[in-house]
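ok so I'm stuck.
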Amino acid sequence: MMTFVAGSGPLLAASQEGPADSAECKELTARIVERTGARFDHFSPTRHTVFFKDPDMVLTCTTHQLTGVSLSWQASGFPPNAWFALAASAGNAVTNVDLKALEAAARKCHRLALKDKSELADLELPKAKVECQAFTRDGGAVVLDIWINDKAAQK
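replied:
not stuck anymore, here's the structure
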């Protein structure tokens, strides 16, 4: 079923399914809620992304190899320890990688991004990839993504 709105082209019906409706993504959504206390908020219109509130975070479920969780810190370039622990918990829910390893990687990525002129950094762990942007200009911010890094599934 297609719905048309003047000037906007076709819009997908609300009942359209997407990657976020897959069994894998539903399981990851439930794990994020369980491990972080976040609440489900809504799906993106394409149903590739799951948005959470309290705390805010985003789960992207495009394919198995392109599945990850993203968190941001907008108050400064230096999030508190609890934020890194939250990121590790969310990343663990998605990748099943050890919490301590994920938290250490998130902190290292943050430090590297702060030092790099591009403000970007990334690290690979077995089964996880950590990407981040961190800066102090204009009050500072940090964006951290933890992705599934399943080399075996990519072959």
